């Protein structure tokens, strides 16, 4: 049975799915849309993603969309079948702590980063100058979140003590944001810096970065 990821390979959401797949030791195929118009057609909306987004994943005849839902599906079905990597523990309480930090990531971490990325993307893709007020306010909001993370990560290499899906969900959007010259955000807090190095220098993520750079310089 073939696992197929449909989505733009430059998308941080696609990268998150690739990261999960590689960590679980799974083979997969990638299919890219030809253009943004392709994901807005009536057929796409009716059969692939009703909100006209990507990625989605096909696992044989099973179809699923939304990044975090895809990730949880892959973990629930395939974790432990190809290697020993554990992204969601089987212990109920340990799994609950992973979900706790996934909720933290969604609620407090990712949103200010997306505010920044949206502004930087205007410059990169449309030639429109970003709104520095929005960027600075979002950066300030994110700095406050990192101050809390600095305390949460005291004495720990990962959010729950062991690498998990909660850590993984932070990587792609953070990496994307840092690529716009925001590296210092992760460097000036020692616990955050250590954690970021741990989660962004795993072999599976480095492979994704290498593939992405290679693909987009051809």
Describe the structure.
This protein is an alpha+beta fold and 218 residues long. The chain has 2 domains: 3-85, Glutaredoxin (3-Layer(aba) Sandwich); 92-206, Up-down Bundle (Glutathione S-transferase Yfyf (Class Pi), Chain A, domain 2), CATH 1.20.1050. Helices cover 61% and strands 7% of the residues. It has helices spanning 12-23, 42-47, 67-78, 92-126, 132-152, 165-182, 184-187, 190-200, 203-215; strands spanning 3-6, 29-31, 56-59, 62-65. A 4-stranded mixed sheet has the order 2-1-3-4, with helices on one face. Helix 4 (92-126) runs parallel beside helix 6 (165-182).
Give a topology summary.
Blueprint: E1 3-6, H1 12-23, E2 29-31, H2 42-47, E3 56-59, E4 62-65, H3 67-78, H4 92-126, H5 132-152, H6 165-182, H7 184-187, H8 190-200, H9 203-215
Helix pairs in contact: 1-3, 1-6, 4-5, 4-6
CATH architecture of the largest domain: Up-down Bundle
Mean pLDDT: 94
Supply the number of structural domains. Answer: 2
Biggest sheet statistics: 4 strands, mixed
**Rg (C-alpha, Å):** 18 Å
Widest sheet: strand ordering: 2-1-3-4
Strand content: 5-15%
Helical residue percent band: 55-70%
Shape: globular
